[in-house]
Design brief:
Length: 415
């Protein structure tokens, strides 16, 4: 008869005083429990670091050159925006197959407004976001209030918006866009202050980010202690804070040594902070998790499932519209073939970043990490000369491994 043994905390020396032994055992138990509770997030973050180090060595240092890091952010900005919205949709227990076609349709409409009708780009951007909100509301109505499954509604939307794109553009591309609109995807924040070797506003933003992260870590730790929850030992917590500061500082200096922070990165950070706060702290965010985790129980608890589902798809429509504007600005044209397979990239980023097929699990930050995994893979494989055919194979295997790890993790937790 065989028996399985669970990992045990580190054992202190036998001659250590009893308080020291208890402290070491307690620290080890907290560390193991923390790792189990965040295995998926830490695993994907570790995988991202591993991929970055691998391609940094493989490309002889080209991957992390300042110009390539900026290019990497601008190349994947629209996918990361879509992934944040898709993560929320999947957490709620739904799926959206129409976002790629909606990206194309909104890009086409923005091109018509600015190129054909000479509309100011700011007004065109606002109207484009409104178009996305209306499209999301249209789909959300059928899903939430009529009761048609999201797979069917968004599949119909995928066909509908793709056809409307062809009709609006008449099968042709429209360009060019105003420079202000192009800066949404290709611009950088302007330089200010005295001349230095680095981009001054980027250094200030990096410093603010470090202070914000440290204050949030301190606040979260105090909150956990106030509720008598398990926390990391002080030494490990300090090591975590030092690692965060080092990572943000290195990233800031890399961007500051080129042209600074890309505009699209500011947009993504604003969305990440806003959506992350809503999903963590706002009532509607908790309702989204409740619906995805157990819809019947959530309804019995008073959650207005129809309204929450409707709002989730309105949010997805707005983010798809924003991604469409960013993509059109990067291409400097509205094209009928825009957005092809974007929905698959967003879904893959969400699952790689920790989403679950059953819903109720995932974070907005996890979607960003998943999108970065795909983005670094694409960029690194292109730099080393791997063909697009093999790139698709590798990304498919990464997605399969991520979902397989999720299934294995759930079974282990069940046992």
């Amino acid at each position: 008869m065989t028996t399985t043994t669970k990992p045990t905390p580190p054992t202190p020396p036998e001659d250590a005083p009893p308080p020291v032994q208890a402290a070491v055992r307690s620290a080890g138990a907290v560390l193991l429990e923390n790792m189990r509770g965040h295995m998926r997030q830490y695993g994907m973050l570790t995988a991202l670091v591993f991929i970055i180090v691998l391609f940094q060595i493989w490309t002889d240092g080209t991957l992390l050159l300042p110009n390539n890091v900026s290019n990497l952010i601008q190349q994947n900005g629209y996918i990361l925006i879509l992934a944040m919205g898709m993560m929320i949709v999947i957490i709620a227990g739904h799926i959206d197959l129409s976002v790629g076609s909606l990206v194309a349709f909104v890009g086409a409409m923005s091109a018509v407004m600015m190129v054909k009708h000479d509309m100011p780009w700011v007004l065109a951007l606002v109207l484009s976001l409104l178009i996305g909100a209306v499209a999301g509301a249209w789909q959300g109505f059928f899903i939430a209030y009529v009761g048609i499954p999201s797979f069917i509604v968004t599949l119909a939307g995928m066909l509908l918006f793709r056809g409307l794109t062809q009709i609006v553009l008449e099968g042709q591309s429209l360009s060019p866009f105003p420079s202000g609109f192009q800066n949404l995807a290709k611009g950088f924040i302007p330089e200010m202050g005295p001349y230095t070797q680095y981009h001054n506003p980027t250094l200030v933003i990096g410093l603010v980010a470090i202070v914000f992260l440290l204050l949030r870590e301190r606040r979260d730790r105090k909150r956990q202690l106030a509720y008598e929850l398990e926390v990391l030992p002080t030494g490990l917590w300090i090591a975590k804070c030092v690692a965060l500061v080092a990572a943000v500082a290195a990233f800031t200096l890399t961007l500051a040594s080129f042209h600074g922070v890309p505009v699209v990165m500011l947009v993504m950070c604003g969305l990440l902070i806003g959506l992350g706060y809503v999903m963590r702290n706002a009532v509607v965010g908790r309702h989204v998790y409740a619906l995805g985790g157990n819809k019947a129980a959530a309804k019995l608890s008073g959650v207005k499932d129809q309204r929450v589902t409707f709002l989730v798809f309105v949010n997805m429509g707005v983010l798809a519209a924003l991604a469409g504007c960013v993509y059109a600005a990067r291409l400097n044209a509205g094209t009928p073939q825009a957005g092809l397979n974007f929905e698959l990239e967003a879904i893959a980023a969400s699952f790689i970043g920790g989403a679950s097929m059953s819903g109720g699990v995932g974070t907005v930050m996890g979607a960003v990490i998943g999108g970065l995994v795909l983005g670094v893979l694409n960029n690194g494989m292109s730099l080393v000369g791997i063909g697009t055919d093999y790139q698709q194979v590798i990304k498919g295997l990464v997605l399969l491994a991520a979902v397989g790890f999720d299934v294995w993790n759930k079974r282990k937790a069940g046992r």
